[in-house]
Specification:
5-stranded mixed β-barrel; 134 residues; single chain; OB fold (Dihydrolipoamide Acetyltransferase, E2P)
Amino acid sequence: MNKVLITGRLTRDPELRSLASGKAVTQFVVATNEYPGGKERTEYHNVVTWDRLAEICGQYLAKGQQVALEGRLQTRQWDDSDGKRHWKTEIVAGNVEMLSGRRKKDYAAETSADTLVAQAAVLDGQAVAEQAVA
């Protein structure tokens, strides 16, 4: 069975991209802590999400937020231009749960941006209607 469950904090904002095929993919890093013998030890986990989950993570997650995620481990390998082989192990998340809320200023900025987009769409629609009448 290949199953991973972790809880941690994002070390940076997620990076959302669209592939040539149109699929959305998001990459981010989650830091987890453990305290063996009273000393803190931090591990960093590369996480990948796909499709609709990638879009949601790209829109709503931000650096410092605490998340719980469930997924599977996947190791990729490739050769660079010098012929050197590289490996990367990452968690392909199938479920991501936000454990801490979004920052108020981020929510306010997004709400303002959504309002401006809606206003622009209305104004654009009025301009098109006026051109059709003229």
